[in-house]
Amino acid sequence: MKIRNMKITFNASVVLTIVGISFVATLLGYLTGGVTDRLLFSTYRAPVLSPLTWLRAFTYIFGHADWAHFAGNMGYLLLLGPMLEEKYGTKTLTIMVAITAIVTSLVNFLLFPHVALCGASGVVFAFILLSSFTTFKEGEIPLTFILVAVFFIGQQIFEGLTVRDNISNMAHIVGGIVGGALGYVFNVKKGTE
């Protein structure tokens, strides 16, 4: 085993960029007492004509309530993201992250007018459902996808109805649905090319 010639590579640029920006955003939130979180890294109902409203519809995925929230989300992204980025490519995964962020933000905006949302949890759940499509074959739905959907989304629905905490089960559910739909669409599209 030769260790001298080993080098660290910047693999999974989308995932590593999300982790880096999220670290800076969480640190800024901590240092400013949450001011940057409210200004840039949370999405909530605000005037539709404000450019910040639309910027926050994406940038909220970088802000996190605390270091435990940050570590939990980044752990999942670092675990699942490189495999997904290798399968779908940097551009496609970036599009998937953006779609997940914006759809989740719009659902929050429309259905939960008094809730501020922050963190990459929706993206994490999209990645969880997307990962079950890694062995997709045309004309088939992977059993792992069905089981992941039942366990993860089912748990979020149950907790959303029975547990009162500060966790947005809606973001998890919407992220999972978007991830499952994107996994299906991108794999069917790839299979027909």
Describe this entry's structure for a reader:
By secondary structure, this protein is an all-alpha fold. It has a single domain, classed as Rhomboid-like fold (Up-down Bundle), CATH 1.20.1540. The chain is 69% helix and 0% strand. α4 packs parallel to α6 and α7 packs antiparallel against α8 (169-192). The protein starts with 12 loop residues before the first helix and ends with a helix.
| CATH architecture descriptor | Up-down Bundle
Which CATH top level class fits? Mainly Alpha
Radius of gyration: 17 Å
User: Beta-strand level of the residues, as a percent range?
Assistant: under 5%
The helix fraction, in percent, is: 55-70%
Relevant CATH superfamily: Rhomboid-like
How are the SSEs placed, and which strands pair?
Blueprint: H1 13-31, H2 35-40, H3 51-59, H4 67-88, H5 90-111, H6 121-131, H7 143-162, H8 169-192
Which characteristics define this entry?
193 residues, mainly alpha, Rhomboid-like fold, 69% helix, globular
Question: Outline of this structure?
Answer:
This protein is mainly alpha-helical and 193 residues long.
